[in-house]
Amino acid sequence: MIGSEFFANIDPAEIARASGETLGMVGASLLLSLALGLPLGVWLSVTSRQGLSPNPLLYGLLSFAVNVLRSIPFVILFILLIPVTLALVGTSLGVKGAIPPLVLGSAPFLARLVENALREVDRSVIEATQALGASKRQIILHTLLPEALPGLIAAATVTAIALVSYTAMAGVVGAGGLGDLAVRYGYQRFQTDVMVVTVVLIIALVQGLQMLGDALVARVSKK
Question: What sequence ranges are listed for the domain ABC transmembrane type-1 (predicted)?
């Protein structure tokens, strides 16, 4: 009885709609972040001082751009990108309007994680492949990326969890999802039950993503 009174403001349909929006934002943004962040991370790795094609100038420019985007707090980045978002998708509100800032906020983060994962690949494996006459493209596709696969999956997992956090912050500025529900009902209308349920769902989503990522890393890891 006490429990039913505490959850008096809970609307299952509203919770399901907000959960679906959060999952949609995280899924779409993660796919697009992988499409941008993975090549950018490979480029950073290849042009670094220890890379296959060292290029200090290009590496410095790429590294500076990545650091600039990573240093801007997500809510501010969301607001700064409103003109770009409007030009790309026609709206800065809702799930559609949240995707561009989510991607631009997470892709540089993922790129740096990819660079670090590639840096951990044993140099002797790369040198052995070079000795066999493999081209740089073959080394990247058939040695670097496969050898770094556990680290790359771990990087994608960390990025997905960061995106859950970003979507919650995006809810503050009208992106929808569980963050929007928590702000509009839990904070502005003092409906504590809504706040508790949304927080529990976000925690469950993060735990689920981490468990899935750990399972995939264990599956592909050679150790």
Answer: 19-213
Q: Answer yes or no: are the C-beta atoms of 118 and 45 closer than 8 Å.
A: yes
**What is the pTM for the complete model shown?**
0.87
Query: Could you tell me the residue range of the domain that residue 90 belongs to?
Result: 14-221
In a domain, 117, yes or no: yes
Domain count, the chain: 1
Distance set, CA 212 to CA 3, 8, 21, 112 (Å): 32, 33, 20, 22
Q: Helix, strand or coil for residue 168?
A: helix
| CATH code of 81's domain | 1.10.3720.10
Distance of CA 138 to the CA centre of its chain: 27
- From the CB of residue 100, how many other CB atoms can be counted at a distance below 10 Å? 21
In one-letter notation, the amino acid at residue 160 is A
C-alpha to C-alpha distance for 50 and 28, rounded to whole angstroms: 33
- Tens of pLDDT, residue by residue over 113-171, are 999 999 989 888 888 888 888 888 999 999 899 999 999 999 999 999 999 999 888 87
